[in-house]
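Interim report to the steering committee. The following record documents the input for Isochorismatase domain-containing protein 1 (199 residues).
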Amino acid sequence: MAARKLIARINPSNSALFVCDLQEKFASNIKYFPEIITTSRRLIDAARILSIPTVVTEQYPKGLGHTVPLLKEGLAENTQIFDKTKFSMCIPPTEDTLKNIQNVILIGIEAHVCVLQTTYDLLERGHNVHVVVDAVSSRSHTDRHFAFKQMEQAGAILTTSEATILGLVGGSDHPKFKEVQKLIMTSAPDTGLVPLSKL
């Protein structure tokens, strides 16, 4: 009988949030970009409230601009933003954050390039990767859809922003539950994911 795979349960003590390349220059090209930004801000806010380490990268910012201001405003004061030219977020400056981290919550763009390559690298390093599908997009629905399939087949966990946020607090008895609950009082915006079969 095959061994049963352990559930990769997230909590603030064993998780980090990775925010991949949510830069201003992509605004006109990425499907559902405003909605992805809104959803990403919720996750950034949750990470700040729960003191979860957050890593932010920018792909070639000289040419592609910087992180969307709405997201920058939500970051904890000590959050660093790292430049990169490699597609993956697993670059030397981000390695320190990964020490003693079991789970990486991954959001950003593009699904089929930087998010996918980051997922592969993190999985190869032994981390559980929780890809928040309503906070990840690409320029085309086709690339986005098949990127999610590739990530899941590789071993990533596909999840949603609300499931992630509530999973981090674990219950209404968490001391910061009410503060976190405010982030999801309104449902996350539609990002064109249902039904996936029609993307």
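The chain has a mean pLDDT of 93. The committee is asked to note this result when reviewing the revised timeline.
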